[in-house]
Amino acid sequence: MKKSGQFFFLHFIEKTGKVGGVRVARSVNDDLDREAVRVIKLLPDFNPARNAKDEPVRVWYTLPVTFKLQEKEPKVVE
What we know:
three-stranded antiparallel β-sheet
């Protein structure tokens, strides 16, 4: 099972600045996808985008996430 790679996630930054609608755009591994989605949902609020009238607007955001997990050395049991 592959445990490293670059993933791409799409999500909204709502008018309130909150993260919403998290989606996997490019996957490498289901377990890592789930963990990345969990972490993205924990992001603090953003400053929302604004239109020409200076009103907050909902926008899509693409977030690249790179995982590189190291293999642990096996323990030697004597």
